[in-house]
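Study this pair:
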Amino acid sequence: MESNREITAYVNGKPIYRKLIENLPYNINLKSRARALRKAGVLSEVIFWLQVHKGIFWKIDFDRQRIIGNYIVDFYVKTLGLIIEIDGSSHDNKEEYDKKREEYLISLGLKLYRISDLRIKHDLNNVMKELEEYIVLEFGS
């Protein structure tokens, strides 16, 4: 184990190492849109938010409706450089746009984790366990 790597959290007793991406681009013109999206409260996003806000999920800090470049992502974990996207009907017929958006975000060094809207509504416990496993796999070694 490298001594210069900072542990940001422990998930199931396993250390999770910081992977902070510095100086992400930010389009200030999207600020009011991001605020409106937070207030609108899409059900699956609200359900997920209640599982992760205020450090409830392994003391990991999640941001909601975070602006990165010219995009607004559903959730962002700054200490891990991790984006969590909830895929619902708003993504229908937007495959090309979503692909371009995903490629851009990954090009910044960010990781992207997708969860289906329906799974959050109907299989939340397993969704949260799978997210734990993903974080341990990607950031635990």
Summary: The two ends are 8 Å apart (CA to CA). The CA atoms of residues 24 and 68 lie 6 Å apart. The beta strands are 7-11, 14-17, 63-68, 71-77, 82-87, 111-116.
